[in-house]
């Protein structure tokens, strides 16, 4: 049965909208991955798994240490 209140083009438009939303989410994920968005969470998981007794720095401390290390060894970055 056709629903008289839904235009016949609603299906393709809805599909196109979903495709655009997926593409936007993928681009956001990609930028987040490049900028290190999940690095601290991965670091914490690694510390808990491999170094259970070691203190875990706050996220702020983690990024400070990471940037300090990058400044000491600039050959590992692009710019």
From TrEMBL:
Domain of life according to the entry: Bacteria
Stretch list, region Disordered: 54-79
Biased composition (Basic and acidic residues): 58-71
Name used for this protein in its record: YbdD/YjiX family protein
């Amino acid at each position: 049965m056709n629903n008289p209140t839904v235009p016949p083009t609603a299906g393709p438009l809805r599909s196109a909208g979903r495709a655009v939303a997926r593409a936007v989410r993928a681009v956001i994920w990609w930028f987040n991955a490049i900028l290190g968005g999940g690095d601290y969470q991965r670091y914490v998981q690694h510390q808990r798994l491999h170094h259970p007794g070691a203190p875990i720095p706050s996220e702020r401390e983690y990024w400070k240490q990471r940037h300090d290390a990058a400044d000491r060894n600039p050959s590992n970055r692009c710019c």
